[in-house]
Design brief:
The complex is a heterodimer of chains A (about 290) and B (about 280). Chain A contains twelve helices and four strands, in the order H-H-H-H-E-E-E-H-H-H-H-E-H-H-H-H. Chain A is globular. In chain B, helix 3 packs across helix 4. With about 280 residues, chain B is mostly helical. In chain B, strands 1-2 form a two-stranded antiparallel ribbon. The longest helix of chain B is centred in the middle third of the chain and has 27 residues. The radius of gyration of chain B is 19 Å and the shape is globular. Chain B contains 13 helices and two strands, in the order H-H-H-H-E-H-H-H-H-E-H-H-H-H-H. Chain B is about 75% helix and about 0% strand. The chains are: A mainly alpha (about 290), B mainly alpha (about 280). Chains A and B meet through helix 4, helix 9 and helix 11 of A and helix 3, helix 4, helix 9, helix 12 and helix 13 of B.
Chain lengths: ~290, ~280
């Protein structure tokens, strides 16, 4: 039973991590908070709702990635392009918040304010298997595998490709990168596409696991990923992954030991504690963390 | 009917002002809903359960909210950038869960029994707090606030204790929000923790942004427009978040300081500097 709860926690932790990676990528490159991000995450579930009756699950994942990515590029265009300076942090947060508000309201208008059920999965994905006396759902294993594949792929892109090198250069200093011939605008768009696409996939995964999609997920689950990002350390992908998995397991354990009513509190209290004791985040490394002291 | 709408306009003006005060020192807060809840529950407990008169209960509630703000704000306000946004979001969720689990405050079922909030009291609160904020705006403290907001490094070099000034602004905002919460609670006479959702905090910030972030009167205009217009125009009530979000977005794109903004010297200086930074 406990092992099952821990696997549950790992699955939701990996979803936190996918969304938190998106926050952290944009913080790393632009030093801005993207408040449309949680709503793109929420929208991923609705992409699944539309796509799943017509295509296999893999196709739905691809579609969620592309639709989420395009939403991300639109976010960059509408809410961030005009507000690039260091002084515009607050403005960018507000404009992306306003855009997220519009997105949520449009979802309300199209699909209603109540949660909707996804079409049930068929075939081997809906089955489960037993191992060492613990029951594991195949779906959970698939979700975990997809998420680790995505994280590994993202790491590969950032560490070993031309675009990844450019992203790291812009994160270090966009002015210097521009002088060296990097197209900063293109890099920003790529980062928004990748991060929002991943968030949208995470939203689809959450929808698959819970069998429902709900328009409120952005401001509950999605914002928690923001706290996860702060715990892991801003601009640090490894920190986002580790903190996400840790928080997911911690929440599952609290639920297991009957503290479920306080479950919402866990991640935020942990974040405030982290800000108090180690403000740069648990795993923060590099220049980004050091610049933030007054 | 009209009295109801005016009452909620007053509350929203107070809330928008509470965001304005903390933004004066450059810190954006998404916890005004939480401070409103603190003010509402604390003053409600003092009046309904302990039989205290309204005015001292309000004062005590404001002090409690300000102390909570100072405690949570201190770690975040030492840091530059977006940490306060994160800490205040966290506070909003924490306060809500705590209220849901405090049984002597009614827990998840809600808390009731307060009475006596009405339009004249709300108008009086708006007048008193407006007067205080106006006095602030012509006092030397306003210039200290401006310095901290425009460039904290320069302010620190001038001998200003940046963290302390930010704490003062943030706590004052919390106190004003708690007054609004007290009025709300004593008017509704029954509140539940979910009345103070994170969406409330977000809306309040946008009221102020819509009106203009660098003067006192913009908050009045923004809160009045967004509270009163949807009551009388059906289309606006149906599409409220979209219209609201789109107008805030357009405003930020084409008039970044808000509807009622006059440009102070510091704003011009800011534009000059950001051009320099693009080159550097």
């Amino acid at each position: 039973m406990l092992a099952g709860q821990i696997v549950n926690g790992l699955v939701s932790g990996a979803m936190y991590a996918l969304v938190a990676i998106g926050f952290t990528l944009i913080i790393g490159v632009l030093d801005k908070l993207n408040f449309t991000h949680p709503e793109v995450f929420m929208f991923g579930g609705y992409v699944g709702l539309v796509a799943l009756p017509h295509m296999p699950v893999a196709g739905a994942f691809l579609m969620a990635f592309v639709v989420g990515g395009l939403l991300g590029v639109m976010t960059e265009w509408v809410a961030f392009r005009r507000f690039l300076g260091n002084d515009a942090r607050t403005t960018a947060a507000l404009s992306s918040l306003a855009l997220g508000l519009i997105l949520t309201d449009l979802v309300h208008k199209v699909w209603g304010t109540e949660p909707l059920r996804l079409p049930p999965l068929q075939g081997w994905m809906s089955e489960s298997f037993g191992l060492l006396g613990v029951n594991f759902l195949n779906l959970q294993m698939v979700l975990l595998a997809v998420m680790f594949a995505l994280m590994w792929g993202l790491h590969h892109v950032i560490a070993h490709t031309r675009m990844g090198r450019q992203i790291r250069a812009v994160a270090e200093s966009s002015a210097h990168a521009a002088l060296l011939g990097v197209n900063v605008l293109r890099v920003n768009q790529a980062v928004f596409f990748i991060s929002s696409g991943l968030a949208s996939i995470a939203g689809l995964m959450l929808a698959l696991r819970a069998d429902t999609v709900s328009p409120d997920l952005g401001l509950t689950f999605g914002l928690k990923a923001l706290a996860v990002m702060a715990i892991g350390g801003m601009g640090d992908m490894r920190g986002a992954v580790l903190a996400g998995l840790g928080i997911g397991v911690l929440e599952a354990l609290m639920f297991h030991f009957g503290l479920g009513r306080l479950g919402e509190l866990t991640v935020w209290a942990a974040m405030i504690l982290t800000l108090l004791l180690k403000p740069a985040g648990l795993f923060a490394s590099g220049h980004h963390a050091q610049e933030q002291r007054v | 009917m009209i009295a109801d709408h005016l009452f909620f306009t007053c509350i929203n003006i107070l809330l928008a002002w509470s965001v304005y005060v903390s933004l004066l020192t450059g810190s954006l807060s998404f916890a005004q809903g939480a401070f409103m809840a603190v003010g509402c529950y604390a003053s409600g407990y003092f009046t309904a359960k302990m039989g205290m008169p309204m005015l001292p209960a309000t004062g005590l509630a404001a002090v409690i909210a300000a102390v909570i703000a100072a405690l949570v704000g201190y770690p975040a306000l030492r840091l530059r950038g977006i940490y306060l946004i994160l800490a205040t979001l966290g506070l909003t969720f924490c306060i809500r869960v705590l209220l849901e689990n405090m049984d002597f405050l009614g827990g998840i079922g809600g808390f009731g029994g307060m009475k006596g909030g009405d339009l004249p009291k709300a108008a009086m609160a708006v007048a008193v707090i407006g007067l205080l904020l106006w006095l602030l705006s012509i006092s030397p403290l306003q210039r200290v606030f401006d310095a901290v907001r425009e460039d904290d490094r320069v302010a620190a070099a001038l001998g200003i204790n940046v963290t302390a000034i930010r704490l003062v602004g943030f706590s004052a905002g919390a106190a004003i929000a708690s007054v609004a919460g007290m009025l709300y609670g004593h008017y509704m006479s029954f509140v539940r923790p979910e009345n103070f959702d994170v969406t409330l905090s977000i809306y309040v910030v946008l009221y102020m942004v819509l009106g203009g972030v660098n003067n006192l009167y913009g908050s009045i205009l923004g809160a009045a427009i967004m509270t009163l217009l949807p009551e009388y125009i059906r289309f606006l009530a149906d599409w409220r978040p979209t219209v609201f979000g789109a107008s805030v977005l357009l405003l930020l794109l084409f008039r970044p300081d808000g509807l009622l903004s006059y440009r102070p010297v510091t704003a011009l200086a800011r534009h000059g500097r950001s051009n320099v930074r693009k080159v550097a």
